[in-house]
């Protein structure tokens, strides 16, 4: 029986306006996806420390599918307890212009697009610390365009709602640092047998080095990957005068200790070295677990 009345009229309109129909359906789909963003949870991040993240749940589900039990280990540590060189190493490694941008590093976006188009694959990620936090907290490791759109919306919301200090505190406490290991306190105790508050410069740069691929590389291993990235982080910290290189060629953190301010707000304030070009993200040719 042929369609009658309004249904026939609707079908006729769709046939006559195919492009408009596609645009309408696409817009409706994207609107639905945006409405699924947990706005209330994002607003609550200002004062509430999350106990679990979307990435934690994803890893547990993956472990169950593989029938390999997984225990999530995560311990919160206030950012005011972390040494200056720990925070500097992480920022230099993952987001050189973190304190200047509003959530997106457009230079890195352009560089990543050009590199990925040249190689025909995702060879370089350009996500900022805020974007990585958005993905880890609320989304997944999927690289589909819809996930990236939601990540962008969440990034804008977090940058508008939270201070840079709070974003960095959430980041260092929630990102993945190994199988079942989340947050810098759990990572420091697992790999170096100490609190993150007592991490040396060497240990801090090793932890920063493996952030893009924490399931593939251990910070306490002397692999070529870890040593190469650790050296890059140290060089960039030295270029920004966040550390002092001694006459013997060894790095010294005395400048950071002497200038480390008292109080939580100033604990992560960037140093003010002579003007330098912002340090870009460290290029990584391996697939990333959480860095893109």
Concise summary:
With 292 residues, this protein is mainly alpha-helical.
CATH topology: Penicillin binding protein transpeptidase fold
Mean pLDDT: 80
Widest β-sheet, arrangement of strands: 1-2
The CATH class label is: Mainly Alpha
Number of helices: 13
Helix coverage percent of residues? 40-55%
Q: Choose one word for the global shape.
A: elongated
Distance between the termini: 52 Å
Largest sheet: 2 strands, antiparallel
Which range does the strand content fall in?
Answer: under 5%
Low-confidence stretches: 246-250, 253-287
The tally of beta strands, per DSSP, is 2
- Based on helices, strands and strand pairing, what is the structural class? mainly alpha
Please write out the topology.
Layout: H1 5-16, H2 18-35, H3 39-44, H4 54-65, H5 84-94, H6 106-119, H7 129-138, H8 145-161, H9 164-174, H10 184-192, H11 201-209, H12 224-239, E1 244-245, E2 251-252, H13 254-259
Antiparallel strand pairs: 1-2
Can you put this structure into words, describing what you see?
The protein has one domain: Biosynthetic peptidoglycan transglycosylase-like (Penicillin binding protein transpeptidase fold, Orthogonal Bundle), CATH 1.10.3810.10. With 292 residues, it is mainly α. It is elongated and about 75 Å long. It has 13 helices and 2 strands, in the order ααααααααααααββα. α5 packs across α12. β1 and β2 form a beta hairpin. A two-stranded antiparallel sheet has the order 1-2.
Fill in the keyword field for this structure.
292 residues, mainly alpha, Penicillin binding protein transpeptidase fold, two-stranded antiparallel sheet, 52% helix, 1% strand
